[in-house]
């Protein structure tokens, strides 16, 4: 997997659409019932630039962040104290296998790995009874909307609708998996979704980038996305879906 690290970091750190993603995600985490334990022991698996790890650490939680890509890790946020791990999956399993966590984050990771079941099963084993799991995934319908509307590329949208693999601007090929696959995995674990949100339903559909740098647009778009994030219809066209469940 080839990653355009500089472009990806700029999108996360500077662009209003990157900032909106994290603002909405953090609001959803803050509003979730994460249990009575404070501070939480948190594992952010596939933490990217560790922006969410730093956010939770700054809030007082005990955070471990794991990012296998060392080039990405070199740009990570270090605005708060958290434990950081790198290396491949086989390596990181060794220090983690005897640990337990109250909250595990897996955000936009499974689209880029082949061993989904192995990773999910391993992380499930690290979650305490009553612990929470937060998973963010690509939503294929949302990417089809982006291709058809934002990128003016109905041919690509049609190809993805017919089963062609999608493309991430920064990460390349996206290996999609369905919501139904995830729900079947949860059913095998005898648990169910407790939170289901859409992220980026609207703010990625306009090509007018200039207006997106205005405070008025950002605040109103945040309010609009927040109002619609649990709407059953709008979630279907969101670029991302955020699922929460309890062990």
Question: How would you sum up this structure, described in words?
Answer:
By secondary structure, the protein is an alpha/beta fold. The protein has one domain: Vaccinia Virus protein VP39 (Rossmann fold), CATH 3.40.50. It is 42% helix and 21% strand. It contains 11 helices and 9 strands. The chain has helices at 5-13, 16-31, 51-58, 70-73, 89-96, 116-126, 140-150, 154-161, 179-188, 215-228, 232-235; strands at 41-45, 62-66, 83-85, 101-107, 127-138, 166-168, 172-174, 193-199, 240-246. The strands form 2 sheets. It has a 7-stranded mixed β-sheet with strand order 3-2-1-4-5-9-8. A two-stranded antiparallel ribbon has the order 6-7. It is globular and about 50 Å long. The mean pLDDT is 91.
Biggest sheet strand line-up: 3-2-1-4-5-9-8
For this structure, the CATH topology is: Rossmann fold
Number of helices: 11
| Approximate shape | globular
The sequence of SSEs as H and E is HHEHEHEHEHEHHEEHEHHE
As a percent range, the share of helical residues equals 40-55%
| Overall average pLDDT | 91
Query: What would you report as the Rg, rounded to the nearest angstrom?
Result: 18 Å
Beta-strand portion reads 15-25%
Tell me the span between the first and last alpha carbons: 32 Å
